[in-house]
Amino acid sequence: MRKVVIFSLIFLLLCVMIYAKASTKTEVSRTNEANPFSYHIKALEIIWNHLGYQHVWPQMEFGWRIVVGTLIGILGAAFGSVGGVGGGGIFVPMLILILGFDPKSAVSISKCMVTGAATSAVFFCLKQKHPTLDEPVIDYDLMLLIQPPLMLGISIGVILSVIFADWMVTVLLIILCLVTSIRAFFNASETWKKETKIKEETIKLSESTATCSVEEGYKHLPGSAEEGAAKDTRKTEVSFLGNIYWKEFVLIFLVWLAFVILQIAKNLVASCSVTYWILILSQIPITVGFYLYQAKALYQGKSSGGQHTHWPLHHLFLASICSLLSGIVGGLLGTGSGFVMGPLFLEVGITPQVASATATFGMMYSASLSVVQYYLLNRFPVPYAFFLTLVAAIAAFLGQHLIDKLVNIFKRASLIIFVLAFTIFVSAIALGGVGISSMILKILNNEYMGFENFC
């Protein structure tokens, strides 16, 4: 409760600062009130009238736009952090349609918000234990294995996003989100039925034995690999300093740092020059080196925890291919790795709590890498991005706290999967609507809609 009060006071202080800043810009405010859709008209004129890319950054002033945008941002961050997908599919349409940013600036600010939400959610998860094992809820071994090819895939996807036409990206995005959300919904329904069956059997067993059993939080997911492995003495929350596998944590950070350095260096040289491509290709040996290090450890059964022992070669190969493809899809569609990794973890049988926490942990690194790139390109206004990022961080923390309470109260981890499916479905509708409207305007203006030149 104390944490909630502190976050609320910080949010209130930010609102007061915005209002004070808005009061010094009365002339701009009157102009905007006279034409409430000026931001959107200006954005459309710049985007679809052959004027080239020019950012549209509306004034940061207290009004209905920022109030509605903040509310949508809160909901998007809360639902996105619970499902492990970040909420970018909700942030981008909100930033374009409500606040009036141009699409490229909207994507950039969305990445800032996703980074803030993911960081806040990870901070919450660092203290959480695995639902059945005496281990952290974040699977560090799995994250260290998939992060190198995931980061490489994101870089490849970003290159493809420049080459592919907007309508191609829109179609792929709609298909991916719809298929993923439908599959996640059926997965959640099956999990709900299993949980209901287990609860009914537990009630019957307690009635037949006439004994009192005290339930101490959610113990296991019915049908999962960990079922029956619960430990009654296991603590559900501990100090995060003692709940981190520091070796794996540092290695994951080093992978992220290596890619950040390469991205910064790439932006300092001429595009498509020899040095540029050397920096691009140097990501491959970094990826292979870190991946082989962790793959060898898992193959020999030297994992830090007990979730993975002696991975077979075909599982290691499959993990590398899936993470690489997930990164490519995330970088191409701009959705972030969580949109793919979260559902993928569930498909291979990972417990929902672990899938959400691990996907969010990986998304924190991948989204922050994009933020560094966008900041160097001056793609977003820092004050606006800072405010919305803080809003997303607070909402994500509260969302994690709420879903943790609900799962423990109702003994249903399927709630996490339902939230995941709902968030992806809403993102498909929102992003698809914005993309289709852009396609229609380009068709009406007879604009070129083919492949683009990367250089």
Automatic annotation (TrEMBL):
It comes from the Eukaryota. Residues 1-22 form the signal peptide. The chain crosses the membrane at residues 107-126, 138-161, 167-186, 244-262, 274-293, 313-334, 354-377, 384-403, 415-441. It holds the Pfam family TauE. The keyword Ubl conjugation does not apply. One of its GO terms (cellular component) is Cul4A-RING E3 ubiquitin ligase complex. Its main location: membrane. It is a multi-pass membrane protein. GO terms for biological process: protein ubiquitination. Keywords: Membrane, Signal, Transmembrane, Transmembrane helix. It is found in: Membrane. The keyword Transmembrane helix applies. Belongs to the 4-toluene sulfonate uptake permease (TSUP) (TC 2.A.102) family. This is Sulfite exporter TauE/SafE family protein 3-like. It comes from Vigna angularis var. angularis. The lineage of its organism: Eukaryota, Viridiplantae, Streptophyta, Embryophyta, Tracheophyta.
